[in-house]
Amino acid sequence: MSDSRSSVTIRMPSDLKGKIEERAKREVRSLNAEMVYLLRFAIGEIDEWERWQGQINQLDMDLDFDPHAPHEVTNPRELDADEHSLLRMWRAMNEGERFAIRVVAERLAEKSSSDGTA
C-alpha cells in the first residue's frame, strides 16, 4: 500500500509557528494536522471568494454595470438629502459591498411583497 501524502519543508516566522502550535494544542491536534487543517480552510475560503467574485462579475455583465465608470444622476436636484447620502456611500463601496447591498435589498423587497407591505 502506498502513502498518498507528500512531505514538504517550510520556513516561517517563529511567531507564526508559535501561534499554530497554540492552536494545535487548543484543538488537540498535532502541529502537522493543524497546519493541514488551516491550509484546507484557507484554500476553501479563497475558492469561495473567487466563486463570489465570478458571480459578482457575471451580475455586473448581465446588468451592463461598470463599477469604475462614473455614475451620474440625470437630475441631482431631484434627490433629497438621504438619497444624496446613499449615492455617496454607494460610490465609495467596492464590488463585494455593492453585491451584498443588492442581495439584502432584493430580500427585503421579496419579503415586503410577500407580506403585502409596501
Quick rundown:
The protein has about 120 residues and is mostly helical. The chain has helices at about 15-25, 30-60, 80-90, 95-115. The chain contains four helices and no strands.
Characterise this structure.
The structure is a single chain. The mean pLDDT is 80. By secondary structure, the chain is mainly α. Helix content is 66%, strand content 0%. The chain is built from four helices and no strands.
The share of residues in helices is 55-70%
In one word, what is the shape?
elongated
Described by strand count, sense and barrel closure, the largest sheet is:
none
Q: What proportion of the residues form beta strands (DSSP E)?
A: under 5%
- Mean pLDDT, as a whole number? 80
The SS-based structural class is: mainly alpha
Distance between the termini: 66 Å
- The rounded Rg comes to 23 Å
Give the uncertain stretches in residue-range form: none
The oligomerization state is: single chain
Topology record:
Blueprint: H1 14-26, H2 31-62, H3 81-92, H4 95-115
Helix pairs in contact: 1-2
Keywords:
mainly alpha, 66% helix, 0% strand, 118 residues, single chain
